[in-house]
Structure to design on (330 residues):
């Protein structure tokens, strides 16, 4: 029984559980949107005194911070307590391509998570130009872009599309324009740095 | 007690993000390179099941646990903020291989570098808040 849970889940089961998470939050009277927490962090840090965009009652957003704290714990449980004996398996085409730009296959670095490449995600990489650009630059783009667009994957691609919102479809088209530009054109260049 | 419920829903979310491998940088590259159906299957299933549920909730007048309407307000229509904001977000998503949900989930795996991504994303949101009035919406 446990091996059914610890292995990689089929996409249909995964999608179903994500929809369940959204319904549980809607039933609780909330909405599914993770990037809003970044705004709440700014408010808690005192940004509301200088900029009205952050002058919100952060206590009303506490539930969402508890939700992401749960996501951290869920990541811990899924990775350490229900470990998948197999590394992440992506298509051979993706593995071959990534090798041509200097990223090894998932699980190729012993002792490091197979979910992310050690070539970018070890702490030492922060002190390389490419690692710095990935973490600091990439993080900045995520935080800036998601708030400008009014949501991220959870708020637009899942909740927004499920509610048939045209603005969310435009946002998702934007996500893909940016994502394709990065994956196909900019990423090979950044990884060489 | 209510907070314990949000914590448990969050734990379920962290587990499904990990076990679906949606938190994997490799899976995001695979998706943007159109080399597997996996991520499209996950998002597609969630959207279709979600749409059916939202349709039923509206049609049958399902209420929240407190008896209120579900929080399903329509989003104000415009193009620039969704398109430009979306493109910037997409650039960051494909570079880090993580959107906000996975950022937090990966922290639970002990990928400490992702903490820098979270802090930088918070600064990105702060910068948006500062520049907001000067950006097209």
């Amino acid at each position: 029984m446990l091996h059914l849970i610890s292995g990689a889940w089929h996409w249909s089961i995964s999608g179903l559980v994500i929809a369940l998470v959204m319904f549980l939050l809607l039933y609780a009277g909330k909405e599914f949107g993770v990037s809003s927490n970044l705004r709440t962090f700014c408010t808690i840090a005192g940004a509301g005194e200088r900029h009205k965009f952050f002058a919100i009652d952060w206590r009303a957003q506490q539930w969402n911070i508890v939700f992401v704290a749960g996501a951290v714990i869920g990541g811990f449980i899924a990775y350490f307590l229900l470990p998948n004996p197999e590394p992440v398996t992506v298509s051979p085409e993706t593995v071959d391509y990534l090798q041509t730009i200097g990223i090894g296959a998932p699980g190729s670095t012993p002792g490091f998570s197979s979910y992310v490449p050690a070539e970018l995600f070890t702490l030492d990489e922060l002190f390389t130009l490419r690692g710095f650009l990935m973490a600091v630059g990439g993080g900045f783009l995520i935080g800036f872009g998601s708030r400008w667009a009014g949501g991220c994957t959870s708020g637009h691609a899942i909740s927004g599309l499920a509610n048939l919102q045209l603005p969310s479809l435009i946002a998702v088209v934007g996500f893909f324009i940016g994502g394709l530009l990065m994956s196909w054109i900019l990423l090979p260049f950044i990884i060489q740095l | 007690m209510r907070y314990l419920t949000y914590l448990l829903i969050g734990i379920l979310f962290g587990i499904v993000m990990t076990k679906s491998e949606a938190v994997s940088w490799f899976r995001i590259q695979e998706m943007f390179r159109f080399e597997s159906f996996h991520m499209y299957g996950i998002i597609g299933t969630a959207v279709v099941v979600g749409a059916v549920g939202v349709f039923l909730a509206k049609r049958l007048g399902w209420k929240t646990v407190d008896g209120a309407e579900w929080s399903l307000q329509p989003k104000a229509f415009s193009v620039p903020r969704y398109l430009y904001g979306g493109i910037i977000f997409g650039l960051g998503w494909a570079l880090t291989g993580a959107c906000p949900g996975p950022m937090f989930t990966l922290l639970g795996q002990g990928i400490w570098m992702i903490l820098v991504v979270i802090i930088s994303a918070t600064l990105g949101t702060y910068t948006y808040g500062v520049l907001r009035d000067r950006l097209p919406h």
Q: What stands out?
A: The CA atoms of residues 48 and 54 of chain A lie 4 Å apart. DSSP finds nine helices and no strands in chain A. The first helix of chain A runs from residue 2 to 6. Residues 1-86 of chain A form one domain.
